[in-house]
Specification:
Elements (H helix, E strand, L loop, with lengths): L10 E10 L2 E11 L4 E5 L6 H8 L7 E6 L2 E2 L4 H7 E4 L12 H11 L4 H14 L15 H13 L5 E5 L7 H16 L3 E5 L3 H7 L2 E6 L2 E6 L1 H8 L10 H12 L2
Parallel strand pairs: 3-8, 3-9, 6-7, 7-8
Antiparallel strand pairs: 1-2, 1-4, 4-5, 9-10
Helix pairs in contact: 3-4, 4-5, 8-9
GO molecular function: ATP binding
InterPro entries: AAA+_ATPase, ABC_transporter-like_ATP-bd, ABC_transporter_ATP-binding, P-loop_NTPase
Family: Belongs to the ABC transporter superfamily.
């Protein structure tokens, strides 16, 4: 996608830093995210992607810098961020496995403080969005990894937040399911939500992201579109532009990763 989105930033991050036991993990991160935009953070394990998502979603404090939501400084206001930002970490955990899909969603809707009259509407809506209506009465323990990933996204959509953070949303699913999940993510962005995506599947990033940030050693080493990253990487092909994967590997080699 081309980044032709307009309007004011829903999320602005300025000079964000974080240390673990005096070891710097994030070193002055800055970026903006506008309605309907998908930005993706790519980089090796340990680059700081998960730390960033936890700070943005109110699960972790920053040491310095700013996190502005709708222009308001919400840095380290964990309860506010947790309410304002939806996050999907995915994986095999996070649900009551002996309860049904529907029961889990009602439980989390209650925890989120969604009023009783609204709860049923929200659950029905997200089940439809991720096409899990026919699985509503199945126990979570019986779900495949692909269905479980869809359930994670459904839980993230319950809040109806304008900001959605997705960590490895198609991890460990088959190609057909991954394709459906990518279509779902694109549709969510088209509805006006802003999305931060992390993924090691660079073709997925290439297909979805309006803007890419290469995170390495706690710093953004490159920001731009796929085309701009290919140009900046210096990779040349005879008959085509460099792919995102080729560009990424060239950057990592240059950075010593």
């Amino acid at each position: 996608m081309k980044n032709d989105k307009g309007g004011s930033a829903l999320l602005s991050v300025r000079d964000l830093t974080k240390k673990y036991q005096e070891k710097p993990v994030l070193k002055g991160l800055s970026f903006d995210l506008v309605p309907g935009q998908i930005i993706s953070f790519i980089g090796p394990n340990g680059a700081g992607k998960m730390t960033l998502l936890k700070i943005l979603s109110g699960y972790l404090t920053a040491d310095s810098g700013q996190v502005l939501v709708g222009g308001q400084d919400q840095t380290n206001h964990l309860e506010v961020l947790n309410q304002a930002v939806s996050v999907v970490f995915g994986g095999s955990n996070g649900f009551y496995k002996n309860a049904t899909v529907e029961e889990n969603l009602f439980f989390f809707a209650t925890l989120m403080g969604i009023p009783g009259k609204e709860r049923r509407k929200r659950v029905e809506k997200v089940l439809s969005q991720v096409t899990l209506e026919e699985k509503r009465k199945e126990k979570v323990s019986a779900l495949s990894m692909g269905l479980l990933q869809r359930l994670h996204i459904a839980r993230g959509l319950l809040k109806e937040s304008s900001l959605l953070l997705l960590d490895e949303p198609t991890n460990a699913v088959d190609a057909e399911t991954a394709a459906r999940l990518r279509e779902l993510i694109a549709d969510i962005a088209k509805s006006g939500r802003a999305i931060v995506l992390t993924s090691h599947i660079l073709q997925e990033v290439s297909n979805l992201a309006d803007e890419i940030h290469l995170l390495y050693d706690g710093r953004v080493q490159f920001s731009g579109t796929v085309e701009e990253m290919a140009q900046a990487s210096g990779v040349r092909q005879i008959d085509r532009p460099a792919t995102l994967e080729e560009s990424y590997l060239a950057f990592m080699k240059r950075l010593g990763g």
